[in-house]
Amino acid sequence: PAPAEAGRVPGPPDGGWGWVVVFGAFVSIGFAYAFPKGLAIFYKEIQDFFGTSYSEIAWVSSIMLATTYGAGECSCTSPGHGAAGAARNLHSGPEQSDQGSSSAFCTSILQLYICVGFITGFGLALNLQPSVIIIGKYFLKRRPIANGLAMAGSPVMLCTLAPLNQFLFDNFGWRGSFLILGAILLNCCVAGALFRPIGPGTALVKTQVTEEGKDALKGKITEDGPMENKTEEEGEKDCFEKVNQYLDFSLFKHRGFLIYLIGNVLMFLGFFAPIVFLAPYAKHTGIDEYSAAFLLSILAIVDMVARPATGIVANSRWVRPRIQYFFSFAIAFNGACHLLCPLASSYTGLIVYSSFFGLAFGMVCAMLFETLMDLVGAARFTSAVGLVTIAECCTILLGPPIGGILIDTFGDYKYMFIKCGAVMVLAGTFLFIMNYYNYRMLAKEEKERKAKEEDLKSVRTENEGKKNWNKDSIQDGPELEPLKEKGEGLKKEMNGT
Q1: Which of 33, 180, 196, 267 has the largest CB neighbor count within 10 A?
Q2: What are the residue boundaries of the Major facilitator superfamily (MFS) profile domain, all occurrences included (predicted)?
Q3: How far is the C-alpha of 37 from the C-alpha of 31, rounded, in Å?
Q4: Predicted model pTM
């Protein structure tokens, strides 16, 4: 670029190649969210093959989901992560393909934990975060539309993977299915290749200028002698500042953030377990394999419609000012669906449950990050997401295995659904009450702030009035007129007039 344009940072194009980037994000986000849920089709057969319990097989999905959430910050730990994220995304495809190849030859459940849980979860984490972030670099005005299209990849992929996995299992077994799924995940390489960083020429010029500045600084240090004034405490401070740049720990002093964090950590104890055990539960009741897999497709189709519809409702002028209440209701509604699931004794009842579950699941997912941004603001949103996902990965890890333990102990799935429903109703109730308290405190603090501003304004006005009155009385007061006349007479006498 020309020297005059070398320092300019290009703005989001809001279109053009950005729509290709949205398609790549659609694929990456779809695999990242849908793949752990779609693998539940194989769990009953893998359980019979290895002779494991429900709690042991549930660790596969929980480890994968926890790694996906907990390792997400690894993909965004440097400035300019748009280009770096694209490069990492390119490498995550072969990594997940290796998972498909290696898991097909596993001889123990522990090897599945490593291959399917950790390796796949880490690859999905490297897919997810860059896909979400790069959309913000290509879109500004149309960003809600672009994000909505990209996030729709999750229900679309789940709707496709559920029957596909059952078809692959019937024809190739679970080992052959894992090989084929590993090859399918190589499409993440194509998605990563579509993520172009904006303004590569500008970045190159900036890099050259930075390197020249560093070389000049090194030469100056060599001539003038080494700088020894940087103490060990300053080095530690710089290290802490670098960590705090990506994870703002001052958020733990934020009342609204703490309420959101506690409620979400509690919610995730029962959020994913019903999806993991839905297809095995249907098979346990005597429903055939394809009908059981179709339940996940029904859930995904309803979820696909629920997410944009929830976004429209949440953005309305009636709901937007109190969106935290709407989020609390969505969580409690999700839990109520699970509490009523044991009443569904037939396939028709499970279809109804899957439909309501898809609606509730889509409502929660649509507002999960929007409510967080409403609390902490856009400037601290990235750090808040990192802290929340790190904290949530613990309960995500424990949720499905606890449900599996309940199934093993009582020999019935209904206690797992009751546990998940009760936990989510409790989380929704907690968030509703604490958000009511938070709104009351915010209104009180705002009232006190306005009262202080009015007091300061009145004091300032009163002081200015006194100063003006004193000034006017000194300059123009009628009691000083005789003195003025006497002074003029003295001046005339001194001048001899």
Answers
A1: 267
A2: 256-497
A3: 10
A4: 0.68
